[in-house]
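Shipment paperwork, digital attachment
Item: protein structure file
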Amino acid sequence: MTSKSNSSLSKDLSLMLNDSDDYNVIIYVGKNPNIKEFRAHTNILRARSPYFKGALSNLWIRNRNNDNMIEFKKPNINPDVFEIILEYIYTGEVNLTKKSGENILALLIASDELLLDELFELVQDYLIKRSIWVEQNFVLVLHTIYKLSRCKKLQDHCIESICADPQLFFTSKDFLSLDKGILYYLLKRDDLAIEEIILWDYLIDWGIMRNPSLRHRKNRKTKWSNINFETLKETLSRFIPLIRFSGISSADFFDRVRPFKPIIPNYIYEEIMEYHMKNALPKTTFLPPRTGNIQKIESFIIKQKQLNIIINWIDKKNSDYNRNKVDGFYNFDLIYRKSRDKNDEIRDRFADKGPVLILIKELSGKIFGGYNPIGWCKNIRNKYLSTKESFIFSFENNEDTKEMEIEIGRVINSLYAIYDYSRTAVNFGKGDLKLKYDKLTSFDGGVYGHLKKNNNRDEYEVEEIEAFSVNITL
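Attachment content:
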């Protein structure tokens, strides 16, 4: 990613940084044996950074041998990172495309320290968009930014991503080194989409690894002493009350929780036993089931948060509704994928499959889709099919963030909800959303409301198509 000024001033300042010999400050960056000397101009540093405006004041600076050359040290910043910062200070440009994730994260922290607000926001947004690296390094990222209030946007992105799809996070090799404050915050979340018994197992493993004396007992079948249990109890005392024991089956409680009875406070254990034996909800320790949606979809097009939104739409709930077990669980079975199957197989693949969810990604990344609750038949009827439950939708991009633009158009003229036509693969309404193999068109046909359309037929080149049969299990 590159942000450019394209002005001659930027080019001149770049030459001043790289070629000029009239510098008046030397900055020593890094620690032995990785220290690098940078030469710069105090006027530019002070003008561009409030930090340097204070640091290079008469009260802070030290002249070298009375030659008016200022020496300054920044041992806590990596020289590679400071080189990016200095270039940004002089030119207003920064190119992060070939930088490592570690250096970009370090750049975020350094720009915060040096009060480079514009650079800080740019880097934070870039890390959010570079979600794959962040997801692979959640623990590193969270440990780095957790206590920085200005990183709230990236903090929220990480936490929400973990809650929506926690499998990668909890199975990572770094999870067992997770800071206790971050773990506590995650366990408090109602929207953490993970089965409670699995969360319990991860918590026990985390507690064991925090204590060197217990690590050889990673195999839980090893005989534990009272001292071993007391050590683990002390480590996990603040976390145990956050476990939703009522969300754990009786069989799992017996096999995987009961062996650790000594670490559970008596009042909690007794109430949970009463719950499993008498089906009586705990009176003092009850926490509601986590509302995070643990349903999955084998999609290359959408992510977990977008799936949750679509499920809420199917249930006619608000996009941000937090589902729980009483709402039932949806099964999404992949029945067609353009990159895997042939174009002329679309209708055959999802015909006679019952309700179908269609996802379409066009070349710029925008996502379209539609839900047909009555499905299609193999015998194409060339007529309109009626339903009051269908809808079409779009996501402006596939980034799993609060800022993604979403639109839904519910059917308002049910008699024309689905057009079952032999010359198109999918047709919602009177061309409101029509897929003809590699071409997608969107048009205000008057059948679906609240989806931004106009009287022109917007046409898109299709990159990927997916179709899923949809079933609910109560």
